[in-house]
Amino acid sequence: MTVTSPAEVVAARPQPRRGVSFRDAGPPIALVVIVIVFSLLSPQFRTLGNFQNILDAASVLAVVTCGATFVLLMGSIDLSASGVMAASAIAVALLVENNRNGNDLGFLGIVIAIALGAALGCLSGVLLMALKVPSFMVTLGVSAIGLGIAILMFAGVQPNIADAALESWATDRLLGFTYLTWIAAVCVLVGWLIQRYTRLGRYAFAIGGAEEVLALSGVRVAPYKVAVFTLAGAFYGLGAVMVTSQLGAGLVQAGADFTFSSITAAVVGGTLLTGGRGGVLHSTVGVLLIVVLTNGLVQIGVSPYWQGGVQGLIVVVAVAAAALPLRHRNQVVK
């Protein structure tokens, strides 16, 4: 019997395409088309100030989507973002200078809040491996745990931050963009480097493309799954810190809607729900598509009540378009 080495499995699994396929080019082309259409319909849309606003508005979603993307690459679904962000948001607000207590941990408080997000992500991974149940069920439970922790820390009194450094993330600008935008750009770069050049990133693709083959080759899949969920939790925690900087306070609702929006953005950008295809750059394009579409609809006067419906329609079309070439595969989302 021939034994396949882990290296051979990674080489044999679906690799990120080095060329540009039509499916890869579709989301960027759609982004360009949408920008052109809205630019023609609204002079305000094509201003430099609005371009800066779009990137600033996309910053938090881009960071959260980076985390969700790694989970999706494995063919799993992570519904814990809102709960993890709630816990991390309240934690950072209580650890930096605030109106509730005498804490003033500064950057250390930010690190602890991100570590809390990573710990909750790790809990998702450990429970997934221990219970052997679908990932969306486990992460939904962890989301509830995160919300519970946030409510306990909130204790009925909103913590308002007074930390000048953290507040500056959302107010100060570098080359015309807020620090939040630059943080998001660094996260996208780091996410891409992890995906492209580390074993964790390569095995995330391999798990999504051929988990059984990878396991049979001798690779212990469980630690890599736990590591991916931990990484995702860290991204969610950082996203929560960024939201807290924007709001100037820690809120239990800090992560509201980010679970759906991050998965939507990743799928629209070309990251498959079934795993093994897509990546951080694909998902970033999806983030820009969602944010540009939302901004453009506002600029041309479309009611906000229609925007959610339009976003939902787009994700359904994107999922259908991505699944069409794979209709011959009887694959269950893990």
Automatic annotation (TrEMBL):
Primary location class: membrane
Subcellular location: Cell membrane
Segments crossing the lipid bilayer: 25-42, 54-73, 79-96, 108-130, 136-154, 174-194, 226-245, 251-273, 280-302, 308-326
Membrane disposition: Multi-pass membrane protein
UniProt keywords, alphabetically: Cell membrane, Membrane, Transmembrane, Transmembrane helix
One cellular component (GO) term of this entry: plasma membrane
InterPro entries documented for this protein: ABC_transp_permease (IPR001851)
Highest taxon above the source species: Bacteria
Alphabetized Pfam families for the sequence: BPD_transp_2
GO molecular function: transmembrane transporter activity
Keyword Iron: no
Protein name per the record: Sugar ABC transporter permease
Species annotation: Cellulomonas terrae
